[in-house]
Amino acid sequence: MMAPRLQLERAAWRWIESVRPEDVKTEHIETAYRIRLQACKRGTCRRNCKGNPNCLVGIGEHTWLGEIDENTFHNIDDPNSERRDKNTFVGLTNLGATCYVNTFLQVWFHNLELRQTLYLCQNSRAEEHDAEDDTDYEPQTICEHLQYLFALLQNSNRRYIDPSGLVKALGLDTGQQQDAQEFSKLFLSLLEDTLLKQKNPSVQNIIQQQFGGQCAYVTVCNQCGRESQLLSRFYELELNIQGHKQLTDCVTEFLKEEKLEGDNRYFCESCQSKQNATRKIRLFSLPRILNLQLMRFVFDRQTGHKKKLNTYISFPEIVDMGPYMERKDEKCVYELSAVLIHRGVSAYSGHYIAHVRDARTKDWYKFNDEEIEKMEGKKLQLGIEEDIAEPSKSQTRKPKCSKGFHCSRNSYMLVYKQQVEKEVEKSQSEINVQVPDFLQKLVEKDNRKFEEWCAEMAEMRKQSVDKGKAKHEEVKEIYELLPAEDGQPYEFVPLEWLQKWLDDSTVTKSIDNSKFLCSHGKLHPDKVEDVKRISQKAATLFFSRYRGSPRLDGSALCQKCVIERCRVLRLKNQLNEDYKVISNLVKAAVDSNEGYWIGKASLRSWRQLALEQLDEKEEETRHTNGKTNGEGSAVLEAQEEALGNRKEEEDAEQNLHFNEDILCSHGGLCISEMERKLVSTEVWNRLKVYFPKAPEFISSQEPCQKCQTLEREDEENEALHKMMANDQKTALLNLFQDKNRPTLQKWPQESDVLYIVSLFFVEEWKKFIRRPTRCNPVSSVGNSALLCPHGGFMFTYDSMIKGDAKLIALLWPSEWDAISRFFLVDQPIKVSRRIEKTQNDTGNYEYHTDPELCLECREGLLFQQQRDLREYTQATIYIRKVVDNKMIVKEAAPDLTMSGSDAEDEREEPKAEGESDPDFNQSNDGAKRQKLSNPSTATSISTSTFTVHQKPGTRRSIRHRKVRGEKALIVSANQTLKELKIQIMHAFSVAPFDQNLSVDGHYLTDDSATLGSLGVIPESVIYFKADEPIADYTAMDDVFQVCMPEEGFKGTGLLGH
């Protein structure tokens, strides 16, 4: 079934089948512009009919018709939703990953004694600050920040406040979640150091009074019974929970006796020797606030990182610590006052919340950053926190808890408050912690700012509502006027503009009809789908209120465009009939004395070319699609120009002009009859209707004389090149076939002089010899590439035996004579040998080069190569996995001259001494780039004379030999070993902490060191051995989050004290 849009398109132009272009009338024009289509009624269209300019349904009017709730006129939340409700607490904004900070701040805020004492701290900066001043109060010290934050939490009108001042002062990274337990210890220590600077003794000692307890580490010698005691202060007890279900079991293990035996024996001062002993912890005094840290985040020795223990622990609401004290008669009963929760499976992610008991009302509250929830019935409720993010299906079920007990697998800190007598408790609950006047003024200033913001938001809401109501009235007024009645004046406006006018979220711009114009300045027939026909009365209201141009009324229907379209469409219909006729005519034989030449490619694609040519005039008059809500014509002109240029380039590339495929470069008939075909005059006349400007060649037309002359010259040149190649190959047959080649390792006895040429020259010459008709002949040797700017030779004897052999070729003197005859020689280079007699009548060979070695340039080259080995980027190295505890064999690093293709070839096996090696001087790829040798090949250079004291050894290939279990990686010299281990992890699925790496026989252990500093150079082979896999691979999820070394609170203000 045809789409309605296509049906409307065909119906608009169906009349052209019976109407010639010269007979087009007004009724045909209106049909083409679809003026007479029926307008759609509301409810009949699911969406707007773009093919019908009279359809005004589904353009966004449904949001305005009928009654509208005024809240739809704005997107501003009620500012009162940000206001603190009566008898509620204030939340804290999560700045990214600072929920762990917020939980402790809420716990410490609800410690009334701590809060009241902090208010007593001297704060001259706050006291001197003018609350009426426009400048904001900026605390400096940690104590000042905490004072101001507590004052806001107590008396602010806001539902939540921003703790960024304190977080910034501590230097915390808001995007990095840290260890909450470590933060608690460091912050209390920092706060205590800060408060010690205060003059008031009660302020100085508040941290110790609230959180400080005393214990002793007691060691008893089993031999003499001597007891050694070390006193220590603590702010919390760190309890191991692994293997336990009850809090009391954790405390018991914390205090249990430990045996010191074997290698762990204790040195007794009395016995003056190491003895078996016992060690345990004794509790002497407990603080008013007892913090019990449940060690859920432990170090996993298998993975090398932290993990979370998601096991249930049962803890009581009332706990008696008396049995655990050194003095058993001491009464130490504590009641639960806060539970800190970590929701999540991993130790490196998750979310922190706090359940805190109000000291006055005994109600429990859940503090979740900005959100605060009061628990019903004055009871602690942890159920919902325990149902989130189960680590696995095998997770144990939540055990049943007795009355007065709670079970949690996410609690990581329990805060207990010491019980006191009822009279004392009653008096404490009646304590009213007052915010000092100097802080209250700052709080009131912040409250005024908040009220001003609320008033501003309310006013913005009111303005949006008023604007929306006015727009509602305007839409109801104009939408009823939009439909154009039959016989009444009408105009066209853009559909997109109408939609944006009905969309209250965008600003309505002026009306721009310029992009819908044809080349005659009227409405283009193809653009009727992008406009709507409305009444002239409605259009006048639009243009008077929103401005714009040009206005397109009934006179904007373009007669010229309709007539041209009629001609093109009729011609397209005729095209199919002509195609059938021509296809049959070209099969008939044609007399060679009559007819016309047509390119075979043009004849195959003439129908497609004709169609594209017929569409060309339409495309020239079309505007590019653009925005219809105020975009200027200059932008459209630029778009049209760019599109036109691109189209011209595409046409030029595709060579779409008919019969130009048989044109030569001089404009004449091409000489190749394989590319053209002779057709009859009837066929040519039919084609000329579609291609009146096509090149025309009658059957007697002579091919281009210039092309014929050039063809003869090419044939002569090919013959000459073949003769040259044959002469050169005959004279230098051994060089071409790589036979009987001289080597420096085994100097030939028949000559004391060898000549040197660039291997690049030899490879280019061989290409010409193999394909003389397709490759240009080589004219010159070009030995200057082997010399320095001073004219000195750049290679040593040792380097020519090793890496530089890939850059040079050795010639016999007879070959050099032939080279000198056939080619231009810019600089002869030769190496000669002579025997120098010694005292014991044994001879040492000396080798000389002419030109002599340039020592300065050679050393500069080696220095550059050494630096390049340490400063490479995007280089390939190979990771070879070692299995079954096989020995790691030290292997020399590959030479710098090894190319990328060489690295893929196999390493050649060493040959026996004296064995011929004819390929030694030849390169596999003949690379054009002149590469130089490994710096290790020239360890001592003093002159151009080289002395050899022993026979040359066997040669070892420098090409990399790939083995099974090896993978190539792309690395840079400045990346660290840790980053390389991450790459290896992705390649071999082995975590970094299970990787053992070595190169050249030494192990790589410093994760922070760069590969360049560790001696890893391009093409290095790094041996990799993996440790035994761990049993629990769920820890691998954490590996991706801890790729870089964990730094904790390094660099923050928490360690600044």
Q: Keywords for this structure?
A:
1057 residues, 8-stranded mixed beta sheet, flat, protease, 5-stranded antiparallel beta sheet, hydrolase, alpha+beta, EC 3.4.19.12, 17% strand
Helix content: 25-40%
Q: What is the number of helical segments per DSSP (H or I, 4+ residues)?
A: 29
Radius of gyration in whole Å, from Cα? 46 Å
So what's the overall shape? flat
Low-confidence stretches: 389-394, 621-636, 649-653, 886-958, 1029-1045
Overall strand count = 37
Termini, distance in Å? 80 Å
Explain this structure.
With 1057 residues, the chain is α+β, with helices and mostly antiparallel strands. Helices cover 32% and strands 17% of the residues. The protein has 29 helices and 37 strands. Strands 5, 10, 14, 15, 16, 17, 18 and 20 form an eight-stranded mixed beta sheet that branches. Helix 6 runs antiparallel to helix 7 and helix 6 (142-155) crosses helix 13.
In short:
This protein is an alpha+beta fold and 1057 residues long. Helices cover 32% and strands 17% of the residues.
